[in-house]
Write a structure and sequence with these properties.
Length: 471
């Protein structure tokens, strides 16, 4: 029920069903009402003709009082009213006639004597009687008529209603209308929804870094707004591809261009050390330190360029994530001992994932080493790995917690932004480039995962890394 074409189809089909049912109901209602009026008139007109003559004889011989008693003695149907009017339009039985009865009596002035007049809509029958003395009276019988709803329900439930369709042809016609309407509505719904599905597929490919993706030609050949949307989408995708490609090329070209003079600088530095005097040694050490930092920065920039281009994900492999995290933890623990702290690793269940093993290892190592760098002395960094199944999703969750001072709340959201460095007492650490956590998040995102961070309750900092498990 969440597919657009299914919703469109059901609404169209329901609309056709409602319109067809309404037209059929109105047709059948008018047919059954006319037929019912005809049967009612055939049934009661002869009776009214007989009653009118009998009542006029009693009125002439015995008077209105006897006539009233006579009518009360044979009238058994509840709601049936009997009126007698003289030539001046006065009701002789002292009853209050309804407006439809009065209108019918008024129209009886020129009506032929002895011929009943029927108002089937109001269920009234009237007849003008002229006696031997030439005195004219109008006898009116007012029958209670059922409402249209009650009449239709009664007739629908009665066998006579279905007897009008002995071959059940109406069922065949109704089924044919619904079938043809269903096929037509389904084709129309698919005609509308198919281009949207293809646009959605193109958008998904763009999001998966397939920037060369364009909308299917069948969408562009349409002569409606969806074709215009497809052409606008293609222009957007072309512009995005151009900008992203240009940015990747610029980053890679700048990084490679910096490597060449850096290499020559290192050569010159080595030659200077061979000929240096003691007073210049300190300056050479400083040059070497800065060259190492620059080389590390260029390496990180190249790593981000490779991830953006997707080169490291061309041949993903399946591997045990637990062994990778344990290896990183062991290496970090060796370095942590020099600061009087430790790294502890725990795992719940085996977690096999797919992706670029070395890229993920480097991303995890960035987080663990960062935790070792900021945890307090005589504490330990806690690294855990767990496979979690949440509904239809199965993910490997890596949590890295240190026991350091944490991060200011207003700086947590920018931790994964490239070149962002957290200030300690208003001063940034020149040793940090601000690319490590940015590379980590980017690595996990290109693998379909995520990287989040938060201050831990009770002190310290927690970084959570998540990877989807293969089906």
């Amino acid at each position: 029920m969440h597919r657009l074409h299914v919703k469109i189809f059901l609404w169209f089909w329901l609309g056709v069903l409602v319109v067809t049912g309404t037209l059929w109901s109105l047709t059948e209602l008018s047919y059954t009402r006319a037929d019912d009026d005809r049967r009612w008139a055939e049934k009661y007109t002869p009776r009214v003709h007989l009653w009118a003559r009998q009542e006029m004889q009693i009125l002439r011989r015995e008077g209105p009082g006897a006539l009233d008693r006579y009518i009360g003695s044979f009238q058994s149907d509840p709601g049936v009213l009997n009126y007698i009017f003289d030539a001046d339009g006065r009701e002789l039985l002292q009853r209050d006639p309804s407006p439809p009865v009065l209108r019918l009596v008024t129209s009886m002035a020129d009506w032929p004597s002895g011929t009943p007049r029927v108002d089937a809509d109001e269920r009234i029958i009237a007849e003008r009687i002229v006696d031997s003395r030439g005195v004219s009276h109008v006898v009116v019988i007012d029958f209670p008529g059922p409402s249209v709803l009650n009449r239709s329900v009664v007739e629908f439930l009665s066998p006579d209603f279905y007897a009008a369709f002995p071959d059940r042809g109406w069922l065949i016609r109704a089924a044919a209308v619904l079938t043809v309407a269903g096929v037509f509505c389904f084709v129309l719904a698919r005609h509308i929804a198919r281009p949207i599905d293809r646009l959605r597929l193109a958008a998904r490919n763009i999001a998966n870094q397939q920037l060369h993706t364009r909308v299917d030609a069948s969408v562009l050949q349409r002569k409606d707004e969806l074709a215009d949307l497809g052409r606008d989408f293609d222009r957007m995708a072309e512009r995005i591809e151009h900008l992203v490609t240009a940015q990747r090329h610029l980053l890679a070209d700048v990084s490679h261009a910096l490597r060449s003079p850096l290499a020559r600088l290192n050569v010159a530095l080595g030659l200077a050390r061979q000929r240096n005097s003691q007073p210049t040694s300190e300056h050479l050490d400083r040059i070497e330190t800065e060259a190492v930092r620059l080389n590390k920065l260029i390496g990180q920039l190249l790593t981000m360029a490779r991830m953006d281009s997707g080169l490291d994900l061309e041949r993903p492999t399946r591997f045990d994530l637990g062994s990778v995290v344990e290896e990183v933890s062991t290496d970090a623990d060796y370095e942590a001992r020099q600061r009087g702290c430790a790294v502890a690793f725990s795992q719940r269940g085996a977690c096999a994932v797919e992706g670029a093993r070395e890229m993920l290892r480097g991303a995890i190592e960035n987080v663990v080493r960062n935790a070792v760098r900021h945890t307090e002395a005589a504490t330990r960094v806690e690294v855990s790995l767990e496979c979690r199944h949440e509904g239809d999703r199965a993910r490997a969750i890596i949590e890295v917690r240190d026991h350091g001072p944490g991060v200011p709340e207003d700086a947590v959201a920018n931790l994964f932004v490239p070149f962002n460095r957290v200030l300690n007492d208003g001063v940034s650490n020149p040793e940090r480039t601000g690319l490590g956590l940015a590379i980590t998040r980017r690595t996990f995102e290109v693998h379909g995962g995520s990287a989040t961070a938060a201050n831990a309750p009770g002190g310290g900092f927690i970084v959570t890394l998540a990877l989807p498990l293969p089906a």
